[in-house]
């Protein structure tokens, strides 16, 4: 049991810090996507451009797209920060998933996704394509397996409250991950499909962080 008195007394509970980390994920995500694209001297489209085009260090044609991102450093550092926030949330707020194999699977996938976001920032696509593709696998299909598995945790876990949301979003985001790589893109483009796969997972994490904070506020506990 985690009592909110430990928060106000100055002894921050690890789960509280983890919840804050998760709640910060969506604002950071939006900042590192919206700010760098304003500096592009060429056309940038959420439908045709990959998210990580914002992190390419060079200007020119890459994979059939004209790319030039003067603020690539902001994006790449932001992705590393994003990975650290996701990882901190998964580790510090791990009790929110409860116990059992499905909880372990879900947490493990979220942690792997955190590693993936760090790799995206460290290895832009035009610097090390192999490592960048590995990162893409971690932040899309693997991350969304974790999201889907989070919908099947035990009844006595905090995550149980969001089970139906996690199941629905997990299924949709995993399908979007597959379609991003294999097509068809259903009229929203490869970039649009990628954003469904990536943004769904990250906004869900932010929602889980808020859920944990509200649970503590209303009941004095994080665990259910």
From TrEMBL:
| Transmembrane feature ranges | 12-35, 73-93, 105-125, 131-152, 164-183, 195-214
Which species is this record about?
Asanoa ishikariensis
* Swiss-Prot/TrEMBL keywords: Membrane, Transmembrane, Transmembrane helix
On whether Transmembrane helix is a keyword of this UniProt record, the answer is: yes
Its domain of life reads: Bacteria
InterPro entries, sorted: DUF998
Q: What is this protein called?
A: Hypothetical membrane protein
